[in-house]
Amino acid sequence: MLENIVTSPCLVNMSVGYENFTFEQVIKELLPDFILPITGFTIIGHVIQFNLKTEALPYRHIIGQVALDKIPNIRTVIHKAANIESAYRTFEMELLAGAPDYITSMRENSVTLHLDISKVYCNPRLGTEHTRVVNSLRPPLPINDPFLTPRPIPGDRVVVYDVFAGIGPFSIPAGRAGCHVLANDLNPDSFIWLKKNVAQNSSRKRPLKNIVCYNMDGREFIREILLPHYRKYGNSDTTESADCDSISLSIDRFVVIMNLPQLAIDFLDAFVPPLNCIKSSNIITDNSVTANLNDSSVIRQKFIKPLYIYCYCFMRRNIESEQTIKIRLAKALNTNMTDLFQFINSITNDETVDNMNNEQINDKCFIRNWHYRFVRNVAPYKDMYCAEFELYLPKLWLFYDYSSPTVKRSRTTENELIE
To answer: Where is this protein chiefly located (predicted)?
Structure first.
């Protein structure tokens, strides 16, 4: 045995095979030098998704097989063959290697999200953003004692309207935090998986009855569900849970999440009624609500709680700026920059609203506490941003009746739930 021990430098023969190389090393050896390294891909459960450049497409099946061999726990390799163009945010895909098994799952924020990647939109690269927003839904309650640690707002005092909910990466963690959640998506398949994810993340301890799902166009959801709900509870000290069990409590925050970066800003026009139609026949006639319609002091007392908006958008690098987004916001809300942002830097309290005159309350919306931040790089010269702000709606908008007998009834969780 001792004579086989190497005690000085010498030559040793070693056999190195395919199994000894990483994905990146194999691809570098197999592909021509003019092709840039293949490093960008997305993994969702057992599915890996590539977005290959044109020069790499002739070698796509080789890339797929190497990925199948070298990347752990992968059974399906796909290529995103076209950009997201459909209203359902799905894309054309090509199977490069493995089984055509597109039903998978991913885990983030302590919840498991199931999906069919061929039919619904999902972006695991936004996991950090999902966590950041969910954690911000319940900010600390203000206290005057410097020796006490502020406690977050109780979840049942927060309402979340998720306008483009997808399979639930915002809605379900928010529901688990105790928030009342109204989640919507236009895609019927997303609606199905959203309901299934709500059911499968429920437990005896956390039944998630505080989440209601809708299958509607985003504008219809805002006009037919969000605004009537906000109007009902935004001026009240009581609300109901999503499962319609009455609960006496005060709602501190009304949060709107609009994660459709290509179009979300444009959907803000759903908060604006057709002003040429605002007349007596279009105003809510509930006596308990409209008795003091012209009393601005009452309106100030009832509607000082704003909508906290998280509105995502794309911005072309070096071409567009924060000012571009503000202009788009003003256009969508049918107002001008001066009126919309006149209180942008005001202190976060109700003093500004209390001091406003009747005309401002009646006719103009405005924004406070504006915050515009970078989220992620999407493509060369294209970035994703989030505009966060408090939106105050004028009195006439809040009392406008958006309901229409011609609007198609929405699908909700009262329909058959997938087991």
So the answer is: mitochondrion
